[in-house]
Design brief:
By secondary structure, the chain is α+β, with helices and mostly antiparallel strands. Helix content is 26%, strand content 20%. A hairpin with a 7-residue loop joins strand 2 (29-33) and strand 3 (41-47). The chain is globular and about 45 Å long. It binds guanosine-5'-monophosphate.
Length: 118
């Protein structure tokens, strides 16, 4: 029996097997619009590697890649929402994580005051 894991949804988007509204791509990162936006601007900024399930694993193993995710988020916020944004990494199912391939939610536009949104 094969033990090979299925590619994650985000790996399949990066491979163009599943369509998405891609707004940024370089060698290590891809970003696209969330299919169910929770804010006027809701982008997902995703390292292409599926090696890390969450931001804690990414920070421990490849802090430079995490810093690049943040830099790409800032660049996208500059382009889409006046440079102001909220960056969310759901970590664990109880925190709302449904896809265990690390990704940042970039939320922008006018966000609800006094809440953490979503
Ligand atoms: P999580 O809940 O794991 O933090 O975030 C997963 C995000 O992926 C959710 O906000 C969900 O709306 C988004 N999502 C799920 N399936 C798709 C899809 O097929 N395409 C896109 N663009 N986003 C998706």
């Amino acid at each position: 029996m094969s033990t090979t894991a299925e590619p994650s949804l985000f790996s399949r988007i990066a491979a163009r097997e599943i369509p998405a509204d891609i707004v940024f791509e370089n060698e290590r990162i891809i970003a696209f619009r969330d299919i169910a936006p929770k804010a006027p601007v809701h982008l997902l900024v995703v390292p292409k590697t599926a090696e890390f399930a969450n931001v804690t694993e990414l920070a421990a193993a490849d802090p430079a890649l995490l810093a690049e995710v943040v830099a790409v988020a800032q660049q996208l916020a500059d382009e889409h929402c006046d440079g102001q944004y909220r960056l969310v990494f759901n970590t664990g199912a109880q925190a709302g994580q449904t896809i265990f391939h690390v990704h940042a939610h970039l939320l922008g536009g006018t966000l609800t005051e006094g809440t953490l949104g979503q």
